Amino acid sequence: MPFTDLPPEQLESLREEIPEPEDFDAFWEETLRLSREAGGDLRVTPVEDTLLSTVDVHDVRFPGWHGQPVAAWLILPAGAGGPLPTVISYIGYAGGRGLPTDHLVYASAGYAHLVVDSRGQGHDTPDQYEASGPQWVRGFMTRGIQDPREHYYRRFITDCVRAVDAARSLPQVDPDRIIVRGNSQGGGLSIAVAGLAGQDVAAALPDVPFLCHFRRGAQVATEGPYVELVDYLRNHTRDDPERAFATLSYFDGVHFARRAQAPALFSVGLMDPVCPPSTVYAAYHRYAGATAIKVWPFANHSGGQGGTAPAHLRWLRDKGLSPAPG
């Protein structure tokens, strides 16, 4: 497979200016305020029959968008007390929290691990909202595309920020050592949360992140969710493409990156047809906190595969965010 985008030397020097909504901060301040004011209960229930002996698992339900319940797994080293450094994971596109057996690495390394279900994508958290206006029938990219206040990612990103709020209230969690992570969609969400949650996030680990530089993604990606946007604009020729991109600009990882202060380790696959490298670098180069990027020269959207978790654990150790020994 050849490079799917710009060559590496151009990616390193890429500094494209991407217009930002004038009311971006006000939009998100209002969005988060309204959801926090809506309240809602945090419920944590032990899961007894997991077939696992080295971890303890809890089913978590926390209030997300407008107080609506969001599902998560809390996975802990067996018998651990706390508080522990905590990894919050957001999931890739069209997936959900799955099963606890899908998420054993970080608890095995001594972290508390909160795995957040994906609104409308997973099995346990419905998207309780009906946006008005036209949308393409497949996927989530164009739900509410005519109005940022109705767009799907307004609700989903809010859920992800509220996951940090919920984690900070758990006795097993060290509120000063919260790490947000994810791959693809989850990577884009981790950038958004790092930008919106401020000092409540100690580090971010966005792998091959989606939701960055939507216009470039629509122009270059040949597979995956950015193609949904192309399909929509192709089949809704009466709609103004600029209106769609104006809506998406409220959810662009490039703009969240400018506000993120926590150190971050990005990753990128230079042969990625789903999240083209130039979209990843657009957010990476604008990230305000200290950054590093792990480049996988021959990787597609799978990124580093089995090499990703060891890279994370070494980087977190170097940043002083490993669990205390013993």
Automatic annotation (TrEMBL):
Give start and end of each Acetyl xylan esterase domain.
1-317
A Pfam cross-reference name: AXE1
Against InterPro entries, the record matches this protein to: AB_hydrolase_fold, AXE1_dom, CE7
Q: Which domain of life is it from?
A: Bacteria
Q: Which SUPFAM superfamilies match?
A: alpha/beta-Hydrolases (SSF53474)
Sorted alphabetically, which PANTHER family does this protein's record hold?
Answer: CEPHALOSPORIN-C DEACETYLASE
The name of this protein is Acetylxylan esterase
